[in-house]
Amino acid sequence: MKIIAYGIRDDEKPYLDKWSEENPDVEVASTGELLDESTVDQAKGADGVVVYQQKPYTAAVLDKLGSYGVKFMSLRNVGVDNIDADAAKRNGIQVTNVPAYSPEAIAEFTATELMRLLRRTNTFDRKIAHGDLRWAPDIAEELNQMTVGVFATGRIGRAAIRIYKGFGAKVIAYDIFHNPELEKEGIYVDSPEELYAKSDVLSIHAPATKENEHMLNDDAFSKMKDGVYILNPARGILVDTDALIRALDSGKVAGAALDVYEDEVGIFNTDFGSFDKIPDERLKNLIKRENVLVSPHIAFYTKRAVRNMVYFAMDANKSLINTGKSDKLVKL
Ligand code: COI
User: Fold this and answer.
1) In the prediction, which pLDDT does 62 show?
2) Which residues partner with 5 through β-bridges?
3) Structure confidence by residue, pLDDT tens digits, 247-277
4) Same domain for 78 and 209?
5) What is the DSSP string of 222-245?
6) Mutate which of 237, 261, 297 to test ligand 1's pocket (most atoms within 8 Å of Cβ)?
7) Atom nearest to 79 CA in ligand 1
8) Are residues 27 and 54 in the same domain?
9) Which residues are catalytic?
10) Residue 309 belongs to domain spanning
11) pTM to 2 decimal places
């Protein structure tokens, strides 16, 4: 049995090597290159592919995989929004993801960024760097006095809720699917609008779907409390960036922590050499603001998460090849 892993980064390689050692029945090939039309030929002769990339898995690539008889594709991440689902189905390609490599990694990072916003650390860091050690006017707020609205209560949302509760915040949530435990606690509100109206902090943990593109737009912001904080460690496309900038300018939004950005592909996880060379003026506008924390999609980036992404994806691919089954199959 042969599996080829695409887009393997240096930090993933030791885990892939270890998995390979522990699975001597599998021939493992790997490349640092992403899966696209120029690299798909490397999958010829393999039984399955293991992938992670933000770039689309296009119909042309999936058609080729299908023509090589490669019917099993295992993603090392959660999000499946960059797969051409029709092409995968047409080629009979079964897809797995890693739904939970470390929900806590993302939740902890999101809470860290929220605390940085509330305690004005970005502003203080900048002041201190210039020798300004004064307190005023940068007085902070306390999370234990606030209501946090969690949008989507999947694994990451629930991990975030545990942390917010630990700080003593009041937590409310919106999701189409109600988690039975949270339901018992009476945490759910009935609509996104109700969540917007009642939250001091909005913590977004929804996957990207066709329906929720730009769900945080001018209309949504207008329904929120004045001075709301926005946390988006989920998907850039959920937030209409222009609307967010308008809401920051007007003061409607007091601060935002963005680990994702709608135009991040090709920009995040790249070294441009200097701030000026970042090729996106809108992103630079956001980064320059003291009350906005932009990070390059790093909430997931911990040793445990990276290890689990490699291991769980390889295990799922092997299981699909061996049995045609996996508990991580995705319904596209
Ligand atoms: C995902 O798992 O879908 C993520 O967003 C994290 C990714 C950058 C590896």
Assistant:
1) 98
2) 30, 50
3) 999 999 999 999 999 999 999 999 999 999 9
4) no
5) HTSPTTEEEEE-S-GGGB-HHHHH
6) 297
7) 3
8) yes
9) 235, 264, 297
10) 2-101+303-323
11) 0.95
